[in-house]
Amino acid sequence: MANVAAARGARAAGMSFRVTMSLIGGVGVLLLMLPTLIVLVTSFTSGYSLKFPPPGFSLRWYEALVFDSPEIIDALTLSLKLAALATAIATVLAVGAAVALARRRSLAARVLDSFFMAPLTVPSLALGLGILVLFNLESAGLSFYSLLAGHIALCAPYILYTTSASYAQLDPALLDSSLCLGASPMRTFRRVVLPALWPGIASGAFIAFMNSFDNVALSLFLSDARSEVLPIRLWHIIEDSLDVRAAASGVLILVTLVSMLIMERVAGLSRQFR
């Protein structure tokens, strides 16, 4: 009987723990998701200012976004161009670094890995300020290229992390077999290593692209008047006039959710961080 009572007590304690953690997790998810849901609902307002709950629902501001907001379209184009270029360059650099460092255990390799991952441990504001000071010391003015350099530094660690995780799971026997069968190191990389790393590269590139596209803190320090990206443009609209075309963020939220579902389906995004 004592054993039965102890087993029941253990089950009750386990159930109580799971219920408590589920409630805490649910509250946490709600607090994180609630602002996003409010923005999404507000984007369909029929009013002339941002207020919640909206006085009515309408697509008028989405129509204004498409047909009467050339400055937002220009900022969107620049943001897409910036994020695509930064992600492409960061992918080349990060994949090379991951292949070179993933299985090395020397002190130099650990130091280099920490150096490359440093932008993830530094707040974006501090990173942007530091890069701005560096450009000033070199007497380099701000331009699209200064913004691109900062976004490359921001994007590369995400791709390096996921690619290194994929490379660590690659069986070394596959590489040895390829080399023993006469394949050159470059052919082995193209035909064996790269296909195995594809899920990690794709996941990291997606995260890097979205992070670059939506970045505000870094872009504030490194952009000039001719390089106003979409998040900065929307911020200025809200700051100056509370124009509800800033609810274009509703489009960004929907596109981000759809993109995440596609990447989860194609590359197993969540599996890269387990």
UniProtKB/TrEMBL annotation:
A GO biological-process term: transmembrane transport
Protein name: Binding-protein-dependent transport systems inner membrane component
Annotated localization: Cell inner membrane; Cell membrane
Membrane in keyword set: yes
Main location: membrane
Superkingdom of the organism of origin: Bacteria
Membrane topology: Multi-pass membrane protein
InterPro entries: MetI-like, MetI-like_sf
Keyword annotations: Cell inner membrane, Cell membrane, Membrane, Transmembrane, Transmembrane helix, Transport
Family from the record: Belongs to the binding-protein-dependent transport system permease family.
GO CC list: plasma membrane
Transmembrane segments: 21-44, 82-102, 114-136, 142-161, 192-213, 244-263
Pfam family of the protein (one): BPD_transp_1
Domain ABC transmembrane type-1: 76-263
